[in-house]
Automatic annotation (TrEMBL):
The gene is tatA. It comes from the Bacteria. The chain crosses the membrane at residues 6-25. Residues 42-98 are annotated as: Disordered. PANTHER family: SEC-INDEPENDENT PROTEIN TRANSLOCASE PROTEIN TATA. Part of the twin-arginine translocation (Tat) system that transports large folded proteins containing a characteristic twin-arginine motif in their signal peptide across membranes. TatA could form the protein-conducting channel of the Tat system. The lineage of its organism: Bacteria, Pseudomonadati, Pseudomonadota, Alphaproteobacteria, Sphingomonadales. It comes from Sphingomonas limnosediminicola. This is Sec-independent protein translocase protein TatA. Residues 49-75 have a biased composition (Basic and acidic residues). Keywords: Cell inner membrane, Cell membrane, Membrane, Protein transport, Translocation, Transmembrane, Transmembrane helix, Transport.
Length: 98
């Protein structure tokens, strides 16, 4: 049937415990946990180094100026309301005479 059932996994676990013993298996899992912890710490240290280098670079460069496209960009925007234009009459319906 191709897949592992719960019984296959339990039998495999018992065989692993018999071969390696409880104490040795627990020591191996502890070593794996230490390895994962040191890997995560190394990744965090690398990210901190990159962030510090980026912040240092940003502190040393002058602030950037936005490019000015034309003189119109400096004019204030007119926001005064305008009178409403008269609405055009609706188109005649089909049942009305034109």
């Amino acid at each position: 049937m191709g897949g592992f059932s719960i019984w296959h996994i339990l039998i495999f676990a018992v065989i692993v415990l018999l071969l390696f013993g409880g104490n040795r298996f627990s020591n191996m899992m502890g070593d794996v946990a230490k390895g994962l912890k040191s890997f995560k710490q190394g990744m965090a240290d690398e990210d901190d180094d990159k962030r510090h280098r980026y912040e240092e670079q940003r502190r040393n460069e002058p602030p950037r100026q936005l490019p000015r496209e034309d003189a119109r960009a400096q004019e204030p925007i007119d926001v005064t309301p305008r009178p409403a234009e008269p609405a055009s009459p609706p188109p005649p319906r089909d049942d009305q005479v034109r």
